[in-house]
């Protein structure tokens, strides 16, 4: 592999006029480690698109593979049928990490990890590629489960649309840490700090129609979202 | 109060071509109890808007008061400055409640509560109304805290934009419960069920610069999001 291809693949994203983070007290990040880290932690994205001048924001599950994100659904989905035509898309992921309670309302805030990507989506048309993408999604959440399930049929694959978007114009926006109060307010006898918010996985609930004697698989213990 | 005003205020939202939920296996809801319930559980919304044909999806904190939602931020925020002009907005809230692991990949899904509202936002310009809105936001999360904090200054209030959007064209979309497998797949010896995902509040973290002897207030124990 020619070495010249490497720096390109690992380079930071280039901030543009619409992705450069301008607000104070918030960290903008354009490096792949941060961007991929946020993407690999989350499960739910919000896809923005425009029909006749009207914005739509559809929440949906997504996954990442290399420098691409994917989402999917029924081939009859209005969102997918619009977005697969290649119209401009805004792909946003946001995770709430905490309430930042400052000594003043003005400096109170939230901690979060978020990401905004502009681009357009392509439909994954090749059946093998489509299948591989769906396997990747399943394995990201529940590694090993795909092989245990009833195999996907040709009809099901046909009834499923998978879209993919290359990450090109993308920025992460993050807030972490304690409040940033006005210097004179630190003297006030007001409690201040952070109330963390976590996304946690609860105890798996057996399907009421589960066949007797089927134990919960080990991979359920390692599911992690957020 | 004339009684004729009551039915209007309590009526269901009227589904429209763009809010009517069409997908199978998912529950669309247009009643105020469901819509308000989702709104009052969440904290983070995604606001969609269009600039020069490009969709933008900005995550931000929101709160509800009656049949209105509110969000706010710095008066310098690009999102707020665009949206306050009254352009079409899509206001979306989504909370992930669980992974639905079916016996086939095709019927695997997620449980969630979500809500999509179309409309436009108005800027809250009256200083007293603006202050009341900010107090309502604070009280929704941490009741009692506003009175303890250093009062907001006129300059801070000026530097803050509060937007409000009346809920008119709105639909909730919810999935709950176990997987819905193909009838013949229930015979398979594959584990199936739901892996719940919860949003939980962690132990509050004192600001490193907190004055000695300040205890964590009681309202921190009752914070609830999700």
Characteristic terms for this protein:
alpha+beta; globular; 10-stranded antiparallel β-sheet; homodimer; disordered N terminus; 6 helices; 226 residues; 11 strands; Pnp Oxidase, Chain A
Q: How would you characterize the overall build of this protein?
A:
- The structure is a homodimer of 226-residue chains.
- Chain A has 226 residues and is of the alpha+beta class.
- Chain A has a single domain, classed as Pnp Oxidase, Chain A (Roll).
- In chain A, 20% of the residues lie in helices and 37% in strands.
- In chain A, strands 1, 2, 3, 4, 5, 6, 7, 8, 9 and 10 form a ten-stranded antiparallel sheet that branches.
- Chain A is globular.
- Chain A starts with a helix and ends in a 20-residue tail after the last strand.
- Residues 1-8 of chain A have low confidence and may be disordered.
- Chains A and B meet through strand 2, strand 3, strand 5, strand 6 and helix 4 of A and strand 2, strand 3, strand 5, strand 6 and helix 4 of B.
């Amino acid at each position: 592999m020619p070495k010249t291809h490497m720096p390109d693949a690992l380079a930071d994203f280039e901030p543009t006029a619409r992705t450069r983070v301008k607000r104070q007290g918030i960290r903008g990040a354009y490096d792949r480690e941060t961007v991929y880290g946020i993407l690999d932690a989350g499960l739910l994205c919000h896809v923005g698109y425009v029909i006749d001048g009207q914005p739509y924001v559809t929440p949906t599950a997504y996954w990442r593979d290399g420098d691409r994100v994917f989402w999917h659904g029924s081939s009859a989905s209005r969102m997918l049928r619009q977005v697969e035509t290649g119209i401009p898309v805004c792909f946003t992921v946001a995770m709430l990490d905490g309430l930042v309670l400052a000594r003043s309302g003005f400096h109170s805030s939230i901690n979060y990890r978020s990401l905004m990507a502009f681009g357009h989506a392509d439909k994954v048309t090749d059946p093998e590629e489509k299948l591989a993408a769906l396997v990747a999604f399943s394995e990201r959440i529940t590694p090993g489960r795909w092989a245990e399930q009833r195999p996907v049929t040709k009809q099901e694959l046909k009834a499923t649309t998978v879209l993919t978007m290359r990450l090109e114009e993308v920025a992460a926006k993050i807030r972490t840490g304690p409040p940033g109060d006005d210097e004179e307010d630190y003297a006030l006898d007001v409690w201040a700090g952070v109330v963390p918010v976590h996304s946690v996985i609860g105890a798996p609930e057996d399907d009421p129609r589960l066949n007797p004697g089927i134990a919960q698989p080990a991979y359920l213990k390692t599911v992690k979202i957020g």
